[in-house]
Every structure is written in C-alpha cells, then in structure tokens.
UniProtKB/TrEMBL annotation:
Organism: Promethearchaeum syntrophicum
Limits of the Amidohydrolase-related domain: 78-401
Any GO MF annotation of the entry: metal ion binding
The EC number(s) this enzyme carries: 3.5.2.7
A single Gene Ontology CC term: cytoplasm
Record's protein name: Imidazolonepropionase
Superkingdom classification of source: Archaea
An annotated GO BP: L-histidine catabolic process to glutamate and formamide
Length: 419
C-alpha cells in the first residue's frame, strides 16, 4: 500500500526547477513557492502545491482526527532540496593534525608527503583498521553530514591502495548503503589511483595492478561504477593518467578526475577522456576553462581544501562566466579538508567569489546531482526523491547570510523525516 504524507505549509519552497545547467544564474531565476506544501508517496514527491492548492488538500487531511499522514510545519520554514556533497574522502582512520601544524609552520603539502606524512600516513592507519572500525567511523561522519542537511554524499576509496584494503573500504561503503541507515545515501567512487604505495616501484606498474587486479573485482561485486585519479606532482602524471582512465572507461566505469590543484594538466585529461567532472581546479585558468567547456566536463570546486591548505580558492566566478557548470563539494578528508562542512564552505566561497544565492545553492543541489550523474534528486518536483530540508527562517537568503551557522531543523530522506 502506498504511504501518502502531506507536508507543510512552508514559508517558501525553493524548487531549483527550470534552472540552466551551465553558466551564471541570477537570483530572480529561482522558482519560489510561498505558503505551499509537498505530497509524498512512499519515497517520491507526488505533488508540489501552491498555497491555494495546499490549503484545499490540508482540509481533506484534517478531517481525519489525528491523521499522521499530514505533517504540519509549526514555525516559519524555508524548504530546499537536500544538499548533495559530490566529492569526499570520508572513509579513513587516524588523524593528520600533525600535518596541519607543520603546514602552518611553513612546510608545503608536497614536502610533508615526501617526508612520510600526507596520504600515505593515512593509508597506514586505514590498513590497520578493521571493517567494523571503518564502518563505525563512516557511520559517525554520515550522521554529521545528515545533520548539516546533506542527504546524498559521494565517498571515495583511496586510503587502502592494495587489493585487500581497497576492497575493504568499498565493501564498508556498500554495507552501510544497503543497511538504509539514517545517514546520507552513499555514492562510492574507486580512487585506488590516489598515490603510488611504497611497495610498487613505478607508477605505471601500480596503475596496471589497479586495472588488472582491483577494478575487475569492484565491477564483479558492484562496489562502484566510478573511477577517479589524482593527477598532480607526487601522484600521477597527465600522460599515464590518460591511458589509465581510457582503459577504465572501456571497462564500463564512469570517470571523474582530481585536476589542477597545484599545477595544470588534469583538466586536459578530463576533457580528452570525457570525464563527468574535474575536481579542485585551484590552478585552472582560461585555457583550462575552454577545455572543460569543450569536453562538457563539470567543474567541481573544493573550498575546504583551500581553507585547510591556506591557499586561494578555485576561480568559481570566472568559471561560471566562462559558461561552465560549477559544483561545490566539501572534499572532507583527514589531510587538507578535515572540517567537512559543506554549507559553511559554500557560503564562504560564495562571498569570496561573488556568487549569487542561486548559483551557490544550485552548486550543492541540482548541479551537484549532475556531477554524480543522478537525475532523481536535487530538485523539488514530482517524480523526484523526497529528499528535502527545512531551515527555521522566513526567507531563503538567511541561509547563506548566516554563513552556515543556521542549520536545517527538519530533514527528509527518501520520504522519511529523520530530523
């Protein structure tokens, strides 16, 4: 039997419907419904009502005393789609607080990595952690995310870097996803090509190992349909990355790329291979923007990494003006972006880059869904998942004006109110 629930009224509903997929968005392009509500059928949005329609529907539900299928919003509330975090490294063990202190004392990210810190120090801790321990850590981080209004989050492997431990981390993600825990829906990505582990002599040798030993099992067990690689000095060069990604794509994987964080080259690879997104882009310029646009590649910017490293933000304003689809993600990871707070990062980046409210919100809802190739969320409209969040305010501008301090106090994930 279909479970129907009427929810509302809301002071405002920002549907994020009928917005351009690329380029700038003006605030007056936002579709805002005042005093309306939502009809949920099981996990899906069945209808989005204007005020007059909603008032009529509410009368029907109110005739049944104590009918739990009608949920009244008691205070002024602004409803928006659930946030989508399209780039995280949330499954790991250990801390990199010492790396943070060393960076603040003047050492560079690359120098710390060369001296035994960085990604490989997290690999050691993650390999030592059990399946149960990693599951608990990911669950706790998922709870933090859902309380911030994130209803879908991507999670990368990449701290195992061998067959046993890459499979362990991806199996943890799959196990939690299938348990339907009240955390965000987890979208797994294989980032075995994060850096070269010490047990391999050459980068080419390690990438061949991933292609021959790791990816076939990931495909067989349906642990992920996405492959990523870190193209950067100290990680993998553009030339060998392109060959690796072309082979992974032929195996049936969708492609995303860590690109242009400290130096350029990754954007060109992303465009050549037809990646869904290129992520980071702090070093990108007009040449890279043109390549990404020609390749129809989404530009995902990661302000959390800039905060953690004390470096400039990716040029999101220029990217939008160049006609790109710009997405904002948290990059939650133990080394460079340990905060993991998407709303704060989006608000701060928006102020720094002079992004409109519409551009900022779109970058963590409907456009973020595109970065994960998901066409069933990120918009409040009939037929989409009933993933939405309500903020205790009367105007949507308050959400970013408060720079992340204002939190959602009502959260629905797949039609179920969990907060």
């Amino acid at each position: 039997m279909v479970q129907k629930t009427l929810v509302g009224p809301f002071k405002q509903i920002l549907t994020m419907n009928n917005l351009p997929d690329k380029g700038p968005i003006k605030d007056n392009q936002l579709e805002i419904i005042e005093g309306g509500g939502i009809l949920i059928e099981d996990e899906i949005i069945a209808a989005v009502y204007e005020k007059k329609q909603f008032d009529e529907e509410r009368k029907h539900y109110k005739k049944k005393s104590g009918d739990k299928s009608y949920f009244k919003v008691e205070k002024d509330a602004v409803l928006v789609p659930g946030f989508i975090d399209s780039h995280t490294h949330m499954i790991y063990a250990g801390s990199r607080a010492k790396d943070y202190a060393r960076r603040n004392a003047g050492e560079s990210y690359l120098d710390i990595a060369r001296k035994g810190g960085g990604i490989l120090s997290t690999v050691k801790k993650t390999r030592e952690a059990s399946f149960k321990q990693l599951k608990q850590l990911l669950f706790e981080r998922g709870l933090t995310h859902i309380k911030c209004g994130i209803t879908t989050t991507e999670v990368k492997s990449g701290y195992g870097l061998d067959l046993e431990n890459e499979l362990k981390t991806l199996r943890v993600i799959k196990n939690l996803k299938e348990s339907r825990s009240l955390i965000p829906e987890l979208i797994p990505t294989c980032l075995s090509a994060h850096v070269k582990p010490a047990e391999f002599e050459t980068h080419e040798e390690y990438l061949n190992y991933i292609l021959k030993e790791i990816l076939p099992i990931i495909k067989e067990e349906k642990l992920s349909n996405r492959v990523d690689i870190f193209i950067e000095e100290g990680a993998f060069t553009p030339e060998i990355s392109l060959k690796f990604l072309e082979t992974a794509k032929k195996m049936g994987f969708k492609i995303t790329v860590h690109a242009d964080q400290f130096s350029t080259g990754g954007s060109e690879v992303a465009a050549k291979v037809g990646a869904i997104s290129a992520d980071h882009l702090e070093a990108s310029g007009e040449t890279e923007f043109s390549l990404l646009k020609q390749g129809n590649v989404i530009a995902t910017v990661l302000p959390g990494a800039s905060m953690g490293l004390g470096m400039h933000y990716a040029p999101a304003r220029r990217m939008l003006d160049a006609g790109l689809c710009v997405v904002i993600a948290s990059d939650w990871n133990p080394g460079t972006a340990p905060m993991g707070d998407l709303l704060i990062q989006a608000a701060v980046l928006g102020a720094n880059q002079k992004l409109s409210i519409a551009e900022t919100l779109s970058a963590i809802t409907n456009r973020a869904a595109m970065a994960l190739d998901l066409n069933d969320r990120g918009i409040i409209k009939p037929g989409y998942l009933a993933d939405f969040i309500a903020f205790p305010c009367s105007d949507h501008e308050d959400i970013f004006y408060n720079q992340g301090v204002l939190r959602p106090n009502q959260i629905w994930r797949k039609g179920t109110r969990i907060i």
